[in-house]
User: Fold these one by one.
Assistant:
Number 1:
Amino acid sequence: MAQTTASAPTVRKQRLQGSEDAAELLSPQSDTLTARVYQKLRHALMTGALLPEQVLTVRGVAEEFGVSLTPVREAVQRLVVEHGLEVVNGRVIRVPRLDIETYREILKIRMELECLAAKEAAPRIANEEIERLDAVVQAHLAAIQAGDAHQTLVRNTDFHLSIYRASGQPILVRIIEGLWLRVGPTLNLLFPQYCGSLAGHETHLVAMDALRRRDGDALGQSMREDLVHGSRYLIRLLKP
């Protein structure tokens, strides 16, 4: 990808290790090994730590996470069902590459559902969470300015999904997370052109203002604009 010259396995190892602490942002902890491996892989997909068409091995993931093969196999099976991973020729585990039509369909659904979640979140989100998100926005800006693609995506994911979770609509949030699972690796294509433009940071500032005012309509509109800005770049890059 444009943001790194390292090989895919090296990138995967560095990013998976670097994102383990942040994995707790996205889902509750579980006491089972399978669930923990699942959450880590899920987080890696949602935040772009894994790249489109990147190949994984059960043994490689098991060694990285320090677990046996069985929980990795079970976690991979769950993610295949959720279309986060795919099995090629019955044995090769790979991160799917979205085609243009699938991306367009996901984008249309995200615009509706994420705007809805944001509107529901505005009157419910705690003041302490608004303060925390202000720090996330600043960390997002710092990552952009440092040219750190992965941390930019991690902070962006934290910002959006934290707002949606504050909606108090768990079924809606789960659907949204499933869409992020599928589109996360593709967001790597935003680098360096789009994310270097600060457009995403600016829409986050607008969202923060709406949050402080508890303005659900304005917050929903800022989420929509964020999606629209980024999609203009991705659609051009995804065209055959």
Number 2:
Amino acid sequence: MPTQSVEAARDTRDAALPGFAVAAIREEGRWRCVRMDPEALVDLDAAITALRGLRSPGAVIGLLDVDDEFFVLLRPAPGGVRLLISDAVAALDYDVAADVLDLLRVELPPDDDALDDPWPEGDMGILSDFGMAADELEILVGDLELWPDEQLDTIARRLGFADPLDEAVGR
């Protein structure tokens, strides 16, 4: 009987993470949303590649709701990608979160007590050109009473793509 490595078993489990990966695309003043491959929830490179592959003349924003635990916003930019993660501490348990921190060049503090409470990390101004100021996004991300999908819904409503997002995720 063939054996399966622990790494392969983990990859299979991670591939089935709950949540959603959606690209919001703004072209000619209108938003549309398309579902991305679920692999984007576990592999940041896959998410970035999928967003770059859309080759839209307008803005593209990636929204990842990972396992109902945290979200990631991504925006491809010339020479890189702009990123925001709602909970940096998620990097302890999720490879995609650890990859976000790696790209941001942020290390988790060695003090376990510092890891008790979640905190956002990344570009709070990631949506400012659409009218959602950094301080507004910071307040939203800091609201621990909201689930990640509720935070992303609020962002979608604020930016004007709530209906396309609902359609993309099947609500």
